[in-house]
Every structure is written in structure tokens, then in C-alpha cells.
């Protein structure tokens, strides 16, 4: 009976690999090559022990601890310790996102589109598709672990030995395996691919936030986060294997639970029931704007709560930041004092740029939702009625712009409210809020880019995410890796004046707004002229 449930798992695994024959290698190569490039860059940028110790001092401050993880090996900051401390968490988050998207695509998304029903009509076991998806995802993460581990060792960098390199790869693979299992579980609990991704991403973000708060204030709290587990392995320093084993063990437990739930639930059903709607729709829901908002309201509410918590978590370290700057002469020298502004205010400009780019994710998801609805033939039902394409796209644009404003506002409020409660001399809300709002034009350009792709080439809309990823990398790692200045200027976030340290540059901001309007206009023209494809 058990064997029948898994019948033809191997064939389905090969089928999934064939479907993702381009997507999976791109993820593996991108993540591995990024790790190799950063490892080599660190070696060139910080060749001497003195230079590495200098950067190690900057890593002791609470804000950096919250961003990249608790520092270890800071007293002897070797190339390996630097690589693991500054890159492992960021890369692990990317591996987690890859795993969430991969598992959702072949479980709940296929079920929504009716492919699972077709598969089950063939000689395939009830659990074959889920088990095949999990197997492929686990295999992909194992390949990332092996390629990254042996690749880092092959670079021949001092202090990056074989055991540490294999553990670095294993930490990445274990993170991907854990979030594959989490996604497989939510694919059983929810009734839509949107819900599966939303809940899984929420777990990923909560894991990051719990770890950030724990690393800064209470180490015990970090052990409630799977990201805290993998960082607890202290790669290249202590090389503890048990946190990796713990992560994989938890993932296997979640997989067993997912398979059990999959075996007892009905096709297209979930264990988190959808609430029945009203008998008659309201006039707002009958409009394209109301419908689009209804479809995305849960995800937007989750993101809004997440952005407030993100701002609050960064705000919680500002009190420690003041004392850190006061005691650390080296840090004070690195951040050149600006008359009239504290070092904490200067540091806030960097935090605000990172927060603004994270706040750009939900508006982009809201705008690109239009492409997803078109792919499922849902927009045809609206456009066949008295709804113009401009009105339909405009509805998604309004939601996207409002979502961006709401996200960055909540993040700023969370940062200000918690930050001022822990600081001796707080920062005026107007000062901090203006520093956040100035990033809106850059966000609008990203939304305009999404509109442009939806209008002319929906299949290429994924490039918007690639561009946002590039922006995060050059802003987040640009200073650390000493990227040339022109790389930062290739992203709209690199042109935003850093208020309140810098003066407001109305010319730059106006140019960004004009560029956003042009992108939006051209996108709307394209959407009105092209064929609607289902």
C-alpha cells in the first residue's frame, strides 16, 4: 500500500527536473559563483591581518550584528571567519527563497492549475508528486552544498580549509532543505499558491527578525530561529556540525508531517479553510480595484506587519549603537562626524536605504499580480465586460503605489517608535520620516519598470526582481566590497540623497519622478496594444 502511494516518484522527479532544466542550474550557478567572487574579493580587499581586524571592529556594533548575524572569531578575523560572518546569512536567505519558489511551483501551483489532477489520473501514487518535488528540491540544495563547499576549498584561500568549506556549503544546503519542508507543509495547509508563498516567506522573515533581536539582546531567542541554528555552526571558526544536523532533522520531521497531511486531504483543499464570502458582493468589490485589493489583502497585511516589525527590530538596537559609538574610537574614526548630526543619524541613512529596498518587494508583487491573473485567464473575464485595459492596469498600479507608501511608512514608524524608546536623545519623527519618504521616487521607478514589462513583455517581468536584487547587492555590499561608484549609480536607489546628512537634491529626485512617469506611460501604451495571452 505504502509503495503504491509513491508509485512512479522517479519518473515525476525526472519530469520536474526537465521542466526546471534552466531554472535550477541558473540558481545553483548564481549562488555558487556569488560565494566564490565574494571570497576572492575579501582576500584582495583585506590582505593583511590589521585590515581585517579593522573591519572586525566595525562588525561589533549592534546594527551590523542585526543585519549579518552575531560575530564570531572577531578577535582573529581570518578570511574564512569574515566570509562566513558577512555572507552566510545573506546567501542562506537567497537559498531559502529559491526553495520556497521551487516547491510551491510543483505542489500548490500545479494543483491550482489542474496538473496534479491530471497526474493522479495516470498510474502515479497519491504521494508521488509531493515526494518527487521534495526529492528534487533536496537534491538541488545538496548540489549547492557540494559545489559551494568544494569550490570554496579549491580557491586555496588561507583559513578556508576543507572542513570549514564543506560546512559553509552544508549550512546553505540545510537552510534550503528546511524551507523546502516548510513550504511543503504550507502547501497542505493553504488552498492557493499565493497563500503557500506568503506563509513560507513570512516564516523566513520571522526567522530573520527573531535571530536579529536574539543576536543583539538575548542569545537564547536566536535558537528559536532556523537561521540562528545555521549561524550557530560558527563556520571556519568552531565548525559545530550539530546545528546543521538539527536543521536537517527538523526538516525531515516537517516532510513526514506534510506527506501525512497530503495523504488525508482532498485534492484542491487545504487545512486552513477559506472563509465564505458574502452572498452578494459589495459595489467596491465589483470594481477592478476592489477585486484586485481583495485578492491581495492577506499578503499585503502580512507584509505590512512584517515591515513594522523590521523597522522596530532595527530601532531596538539604536540605544546600544549610541554606547557602541561612544566606546569605540575606531568606529568613530570610520564615520566622519558631520556637524549637527550624531553618528547614529549617519548610520540611519544606510539602514534606511536597505529598508526602502525591502519595502519595494510588496509593491512589485502587487503590480506583477496582474501578469499572474492574465496567465490564469482571469483578466479575460474582466476585459470582456465594460472594463478598459487602462482601468484594469490602473487598479493594480494604485494598489502597488499605495502599498509602497504604506510599507515604508510603517517601517519608519516602527524604527522611530522603538528607537526613541531606547535612546537617550531621540530622533525627531519628521527627520526620520523625510529620510524614508525620499526613497519613494526610486520605488516608483521599480514599479514603472514592472508596468513596462507587463505592458510589452510579460515573460521578461522577472528581470524586475533581478534588478532589485542587483540594487540590494550594490547598496548592501557595495561599501563592504568597495564596488566602484558607477555600479551604485546604475540603480535608482543610488541617486537618492541621504537625508538628513545630505541636502535635499530636488533636481535628482525630479528626474527620477519623470523617469518613473515615462516608464508608466509607455507600459500603459504597450498593455493597451498587445494581445492578452492566457
Chart the SSEs and their pairings:
Elements: H1 2-5, H2 9-19, H3 23-45, H4 49-58, H5 62-68, H6 79-106, H7 108-112, H8 115-120, H9 128-154, H10 162-189, H11 193-217, H12 219-222, H13 226-231, H14 242-264, H15 288-315, H16 318-327, H17 329-334, H18 343-359, H19 361-375, H20 379-383, H21 389-422, H22 429-437, H23 440-456, H24 462-481, H25 485-489, H26 506-529
Helix pairs in contact: 2-9, 3-6, 3-9, 5-11, 6-9, 6-10, 6-11, 9-10, 10-11, 10-14, 11-15, 15-18, 15-21, 18-21, 18-24, 19-21, 19-23, 21-22, 21-23, 23-26
Describe the structure.
The protein has 534 residues and is an all-alpha fold. It is 74% helix and 0% strand. It is built from 26 helices and no strands. It has helices spanning 2-5, 9-19, 23-45, 49-58, 62-68, 79-106, 108-112, 115-120, 128-154, 162-189, 193-217, 219-222, 226-231, 242-264, 288-315, 318-327, 329-334, 343-359, 361-375, 379-383, 389-422, 429-437, 440-456, 462-481, 485-489, 506-529. Helix 2 (9-19) crosses helix 9. The longest helix has 34 residues, at 389-422. The model has no long low-confidence stretch (mean pLDDT 86).
